[in-house]
Specification:
about 20% strand; Isopropylmalate Dehydrogenase; isocitrate dehydrogenase (NADP+) activity; EC 1.1.1.42; alpha/beta; about 525 residues; NADP; about 40% helix
Length: about 525
């Protein structure tokens, strides 16, 4: 087998580093921790941390409780069999089962804290153990984003554009406390302020780079009680993932003065609109959106509703924001009438605009079974309400789709689970729900399989989703959040994350075995 020394076998690619197995063989021993032995199969791993890669493979196994210690990819490699001459894609696999070939690469975006740890477990234990897949890795952990001035996020977005499919772990969106905790660069603060957002979140920057619509859909498990018991069918939230408050410029007004909005047409004279005459201190904000982006949002939403044969609503506050929200309403209606009305009517579904307050009230009273297209902020808030209403924030998928369908990114809709990570740092057991993170992988695999026309990849992803649901619904094995949702508070009613993942893999093997018999 050809061994590749990490210190000499890697090369720069943008903000990432590529390690390839078909480099010149070295004379190093395969037992050395600085040697990567990949066997005869060629694959590439993109590492987001170039500095001292081989040195960092030594030992960072213990987590300190006094400081935030984020497990980097080299550390994860140190704890895998990759450095001991075995390919992790084949370990512990039954000789009778052939691995499923994923034809084209998937872009993997790593994250932070507890979800980063769970992400690695999911990849190793319930994905790559069954799949032959080329993962293009980008480290979107906060420290490395800061180190690269967010260039790694831009590069990740370009990689998704190139390969078509990405899967993303949850990442930290830093507030002021996080800025101090991580000692983020002051220069980055200035850069971000000039770009109208201080330390933008990785997901938001990805969305800004790629455009598109974020669709959030609940994972329905019958055993889990719903906080909104009338909801019988899924409610899909389509969130316009561009502009508005998320690209706004805001500032403190120090004292008396006049606030004006100035627009200067290309080659024309400035136009001034007086906004407010301040008599004392206050605050101000300006925001924007683009017709092109709104049109893309409309097309993506109508296409999804048509694909799922579900009625669709669009909600704004156009009675107050007559021009701003009115523009959304008018563009949606124009596109629907010209391009989608006939298709919707043929399928027995419909499109309707509703005021946001009326839509929210109707949503609570309904049984579900529709798509709601919402502006950026509305979709951000309402998707969490829908997730909790169906049982848990850990039971929500999130996918980003571009209007042209040339890029797709899936992720969990929740955060990095900091509280559980602090417990993990102290060496205590944790019971973090990994279902949404698993579905981030499966939805990406489904999309990859659809694009590549490889039904076996799609089927594997669907069987993995089925296993996740059945472990909870049929076997009653669940993490603490779901047990509490079921009204169970005793320790015996829930399992740790690792125990849940083990149950999912067991169930997955059973499901795949049943298919083989058929």
């Amino acid at each position: 087998m050809a061994a590749v020394r990490l210190t000499s076998g890697h090369f720069r690619q943008g903000c990432c580093w590529v390690i390839r197995s078909r480099c010149q063989p070295t004379c190093a021993s395969a037992s050395s921790s600085s040697v990567l032995n990949t066997g005869s199969r060629s694959f590439s791993t993109v590492v987001g941390r170039p500095a001292s890669i081989s040195a960092s493979l030594s030992s960072q196994s213990s987590l300190s409780s006094s400081a935030y210690v984020r497990p980097a990819l080299p550390n994860a490699l140190a704890h895998s069999s990759l450095v001991h001459g075995r390919n992790p894609f084949t370990r512990n696999m039954s000789a009778a089962r052939r691995k499923i070939m994923v034809k084209n690469p998937i872009v993997e975006l790593d994250g932070d804290e507890m979800t980063r740890i769970i992400w690695q477990d999911i990849k190793d234990k319930v994905c790559c153990r069954y799949l032959e897949v080329d993962l293009k890795y980008y480290d979107l952990g906060l420290e490395y984003r800061d180190q690269t001035d967010d260039q790694v996020t831009v590069d990740a977005a370009e990689a998704i554009k190139k390969y078509g499919v990405g899967v993303k772990c949850a990442t930290i969106t830093p507030d002021e406390a996080r800025v101090e905790e991580f000692k983020l660069k002051k220069s980055n603060v200035a850069i971000s302020q000039r770009n109208h957002q201080k330390h933008p979140c990785a997901g938001g920057l990805l969305t800004h780079c790629r455009g598109g619509t974020v669709f959030r859909e609940p994972i329905v498990i019958p055993r889990i009680p719903k906080l909104v018991p009338g909801w019988k069918k899924p409610i899909i939230i389509g969130r316009h993932a561009f502009g508005d408050q998320y690209r706004a410029t805001d500032r403190l007004i120090p004292g008396p003065g006049t606030l004006e909005l100035v627009y200067t047409p290309a080659g024309g004279e400035p136009e001034r609109i007086q906004v407010y005459d301040f008599k004392g201190p206050g605050i101000a904000q300006t925001q924007y959106n683009l017709d092109e982006s709104i049109r893309g949002f409309a097309h993506a939403s109508f296409k999804l509703a048509s694909l799922k044969s579900l009625p669709m609503y669009m909600s704004t506050k156009n009675t107050i924001l007559k021009k701003y929200d009115g523009r959304f309403k008018d563009i949606f209606q124009e596109i629907y009438d010209k391009e989608y009305k006939a298709d919707f009517e043929a399928k027995g579904i419909w499109y309707e605009h509703r005021l946001i307050d009326d839509m929210v009230a109707q949503m609570i009273k309904s049984e579900g079974g529709y798509v709601i297209a919402m502006k950026n902020y509305d979709g951000d808030v309402q998707s969490d309400i829908v997730a909790q209403g169906f049982g848990s924030l850990g039971l929500m998928t999130s996918t980003l789709t571009t209007p042209a369908g040339d890029a797709f990114e899936s992720e969990a809709a929740h955060g990095t689970v900091t509280r559980h990570y602090r417990e993990h740092q102290k060496g205590r057991e944790t019971s973090t729900n990994p279902i949404a993170s698993i579905f981030a992988w499966t939805r990406g695999l489904v999309r990859r399989g659809q694009l590549d026309e490889t039904p076996e990849v799609v089927n594997f992803a669907e069987q993995l989703e089925r296993a996740c649901v059945e472990v909870v619904d049929v076997e009653g094995i669940m993490t603490k959040d779901l047990a509490l949702a079921c009204g169970k508070k005793d320790r015996e009613s829930w399992v740790t994350t690792k125990e849940y993942l083990a149950a999912v893999e067991r169930r997955l093997q059973k499901n795949l075995g049943e298919e083989t018999k058929l």
